[in-house]
C-alpha cells in the first residue's frame, strides 16, 4: 500500500546479507515492477521492466516471498528486482572504452531530465559512431541535431525526434556494434528549434511535437527516498493515495535534491519559485509538502484564479530567460501559448503549473507513468479533482 515507507531499518538489515555479484538482469515477464529502497512488495514502485528489457545488478538478497520465491536482485541505484521475473547473467557488465555501459539513469532529449552524466554518455556513443558532436555533458540544439542525424543515418527514422530513452531503440542502436552510421545528406526537415513556437498559440492543451508516454522508468534519488517520503507521510497523514502520489511525483520532477532551489527552500513543488528567479522559502519540509497539498486543493475547489475552473484559460507565448541560459534543458527558449477551457484535466494542469511543460510532454508523461505504476487508472484527460479525492 502506498504511503508506508518505514523501510530504513529493513534496508540496513538486508544490506548486511547482500551477496555481491555483478551482472545483467533480463526481464522474462510481460511487466515487472521495480521496488525502491528494499526487497519488498510493500516498498514503493519506482519503475518497471518490460519483457526483454535489461538492467544491471550488484548482488542478491532475501526479501518478500512471492509464490514461494524470496530471492531479490539489487540494482545499481538501490532498486530491487524480484528474481521470479528476471533471468540473471552472472558476469560483469561489459565496459566499452567510452565508459557508457552503465546505461542511462533518465532520458536525454527535449523536455527530458538531461543529467550531465547521461548526456555525456550519449555524446560519447554518438561520437564513437562517427556523428559530429561535442562532448560537454550539456544538451542543446547541437546534441539534439546529432541524435536526429544518428536516428536518420543509422536507424532509418524519417525525421527523428532527437531523444534517447532508457532502453529505447536509439539507445540500443548506439550500443549495438552492428549498427553503422552514414551521415544524412541534410539535417532533415528544419524545425527552427528555438523559434518554431515564437508567438504561436496552440488551441487546446496538447503539445504536438513529442509523444505522451505512460511507461517511463522512474528512479527516485536519495533525497526523495530518505527525506521527502518520510516527511510526506507525516505532512499528508489522512490524505488520499492520489494526493500523496501526485505530490511525490511532482516533487521528483521539480528536481528535489541537494543543491536545487526546491531543496534549499523546503519548497518541493517550487510553488512561487518563478522562472525569473524569485524564491519562496518555507520553514520546514513538512510545511512545504502541506503547501503542495493546499495548492492542489484550492485548484480543485476553484479558488485559484490561475486555474479558472470551467472557464477559458489563455497562456500567452513566452520567452524564457532561464531556458535560454540552460541549453541542457533541451527546450526551445520561445514557448508556445495555449487556449483551452480549464476543467482540471491533468494535461491542462501541467501546462499552467510548469513553464517547461509548455514545450513538451515530459512532465505529463512522468506523472502519468508514476500514477499508473502505482495502480491508478489515469490518462492525460483525467481530472486532478478525481485523482486526489
Share of helical residues: 25-40%
| Structure annotation, total helices | 12
Estimated share of beta-strand residues: 15-25%
Q: Please compute the radius of gyration using only Cα atoms.
A: 21 Å
How is the biggest beta sheet arranged?
7 strands, antiparallel
> What value does the average pLDDT take?
84
Strand arrangement, major sheet: 3-2-6-5-4-1-7
- How many structural domains are formed by the residues? 3
How many strand segments? 12
Distance between the termini: 17 Å
General form: globular
Structural class: alpha+beta
Order of helices and strands: HEEEEEEEHHHEHHHHEEHEEHHH
Poorly predicted ranges (pLDDT <50, ≥5 residues)? 1-16, 92-101
List the SSEs and their pairings.
Blueprint lengths: L7 H9 L2 E9 L3 E6 L8 E6 L3 E13 L2 E7 L3 E4 L3 E4 L26 H13 L12 H14 L14 H7 L25 E3 L18 H14 L5 H13 L7 H4 L20 H16 L11 E4 L2 E2 L1 H5 L8 E2 L1 E5 L4 H8 L8 H12 L10 H4 L2
Helix pairs in contact: 5-6, 5-8, 6-11
Please name the defining characteristics of this protein:
389 residues; SH3 type barrels; three-stranded mixed sheet; 12 helices; 31% helix; disordered N terminus
Amino acid at each position: 500500500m502506498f504511503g508506508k515507507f518505514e523501510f530504513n531499518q529493513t534496508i540496513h538489515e538486508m544490506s548486511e546479507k547482500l551477496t555481491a555479484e555483478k551482472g545483467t538482469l533480463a526481464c522474462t515477464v510481460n511487466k515487472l515492477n521495480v521496488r525502491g529502497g528494499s526487497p519488498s512488495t510493500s516498498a514503493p514502485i519506482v519503475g518497471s521492466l518490460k519483457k526483454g528489457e535489461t538492467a544491471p545488478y550488484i548482488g542478491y538478497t532475501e526479501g518478500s516471498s512471492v509464490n514461494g520465491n524470496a530471492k531479490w536482485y539489487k540494482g545499481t541505484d538501490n532498486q530491487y528486482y524480484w528474481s521470479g521475473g528476471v533471468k540473471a547473467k552472472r558476469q560483469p557488465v561489459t565496459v566499452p572504452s567510452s565508459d557508457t555501459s552503465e546505461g542511462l539513469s533518465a532520458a536525454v532529449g527535449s523536455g527530458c531530465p538531461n543529467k550531465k552524466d547521461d548526456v555525456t554518455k550519449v555524446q560519447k556513443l554518438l561520437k564513437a559512431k562517427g556523428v559530429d558532436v561535442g562532448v560537454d555533458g550539456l544538451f542543446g540544439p547541437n546534441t539534439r541535431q546529432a541524435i536526429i542525424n544518428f536516428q536518420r543515418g543509422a536507424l532509418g527514422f524519417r525525421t527523428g525526434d532527437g531523444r534517447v530513452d532508457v532502453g529505447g531503440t536509439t539507445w540500443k542502436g548506439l550500443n549495438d556494434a552492428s549498427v553503422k552510421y552514414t551521415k544524412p545528406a541534410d539535417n532533415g526537415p528544419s524545425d527552427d528549434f528555438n523559434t518554431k513556437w515564437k508567438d504561436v498559440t496552440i488551441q487546446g492543451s496538447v503539445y504536438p511535437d513529442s509523444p505522451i508516454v505512460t511507461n517511463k522508468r522512474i528512479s527516485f534519488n536519495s533525497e526523495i527516498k530518505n527525506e521527502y517520503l518520510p516527511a510526506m507521510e507525516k505532512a499528508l497523514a489522512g490524505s488520499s493515495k492520489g494526493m500523496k502520489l501526485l505530490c511525490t511525483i511532482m516533487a521528483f520532477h521539480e528536481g528535489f535534491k541537494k543543491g536545487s532551489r526546491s531543496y534549499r527552500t523546503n519548497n518541493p513543488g517550487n510553488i512561487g519559485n518563478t522562472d525569473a528567479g524569485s524564491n519562496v522559502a518555507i520553514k520546514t519540509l513538512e510545511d512545504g509538502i502541506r503547501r503542495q497539498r493546499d495548492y492542489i486543493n484550492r485548484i480543485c475547489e476553484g479558488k485559484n484564479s490561475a486555474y479558472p475552473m470551467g472557464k477559458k484559460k489563455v497562456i500567452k507565448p513566452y520567452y524564457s530567460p532561464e531556458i535560454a541560459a540552460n541549453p541542457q534543458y533541451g527546450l526551445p527558449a520561445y514557448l508556445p501559448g495555449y487556449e483551452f477551457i480549464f476543467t482540471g484535466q491533468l494535461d491542462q494542469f501541467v501546462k499552467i503549473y510548469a513553464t517547461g511543460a509548455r514545450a513538451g510532454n515530459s512532465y505529463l508523461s512522468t506523472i502519468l507513468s508514476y500514477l499508473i505504476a502505482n495502480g491508478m487508472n489515469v490518462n492525460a484527460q483525467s481530472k486532478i479533482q478525481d485523482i486526489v479525492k
